[in-house]
Amino acid sequence: MLTIDVDYNDYSYFAYVVEFGGFSAAARHIGIPKSRLSRRIAALEERLGVRLLQRSTRKLTLTDVGQKFLNHCQALQREAEAAECIVASVKAEPSGRVRLSVPPGLLDHLTPVLQRFITEHPKVILETITTTRRVDLLEEGIDVALRVRATDDEDPQWATRRLRATRGMLVASPALVARLGGLSTPGALALAPALGTVAADQMIHWRLVNAAGEVREFVLPPRLVSEHFGLRRQAAIDGLGVTMLPMENARADIEAGLLVEVLPEWRFPLSHLQAVYASQRGLSPAVRALLDLLVETMV
């Protein structure tokens, strides 16, 4: 392990000497005298205790260790350039168009956040695409996609920022629960009208777990098919059926007595809201500002 101070400029100088094929061209590119550059490389070799370059009157040749060292020096150059780009993008004022994909059920909850984003960044045009479909960010030109996924459902193809954890619960109006005899057992749920989204078989599928880790899946015919939490919430309050709502969407209505939790010992598996985007590197100031606000307000 090296114990003396390291000047990483020497690493970059070495990479430039190789890139430009000699000390003269590299010195002109860097803007320092050739003699000084030569001394810096010689001092670098002395400090490392190895010869990086074989020098002749006609050309420079990398040694084996010099080639390996060069690969790391070039990686340092790339990281330094990326660091400068990040700083420059942060300093720049957000502007331009940002395309955000949002599941319909999240849009109402997200509206205050998006309104704040537009207000704080008047030069940004925000376009929302409302869909539950798994969008292809590159093919469809989506900058950020919000998705609700199980905790073990991470897509390595994209960069992600995990936002808040969420868990679904079954709710219904007190009057409907009383009319159906309390809905106190899983078997009783089959008698209840169901409100929600349907699978390919046009049936509502609810997969629930209890504290012991037992899993039960319910397949029910729909009374109302909708991806929109707001519509399902109001339909449940009006006594039209049982529906799944995220806990944060249902909490206030339960406290107000408008809804009650059905089968409280059975709940949906824990999921999380995540923001998905193409890459950390090269994000526009506008996209970075949106991601930062989502993290600030939804974690």
UniProtKB/TrEMBL annotation:
Domain HTH lysR-type: 6-63
InterPro entries: LysR-type_TF_proteobact-type, LysR_HTH_N, LysR_subst-bd, WH-like_DNA-bd_sf, WH_DNA-bd_sf
Gene3D superfamilies: 3.40.190.290, Winged helix-like DNA-binding domain superfamily/Winged helix DNA-binding domain
Pfam families, per database record: HTH_1, LysR_substrate
UniProt keywords, alphabetically: DNA-binding, Transcription, Transcription regulation
Recorded superkingdom: Bacteria
Record family assignment: Belongs to the LysR transcriptional regulatory family.
PANTHER family: HTH-TYPE TRANSCRIPTIONAL REGULATOR, TRANSCRIPTIONAL REGULATOR, LYSR FAMILY
UniProt name for this protein: LysR family transcriptional regulator
Species the sequence originates in: Deefgea chitinilytica
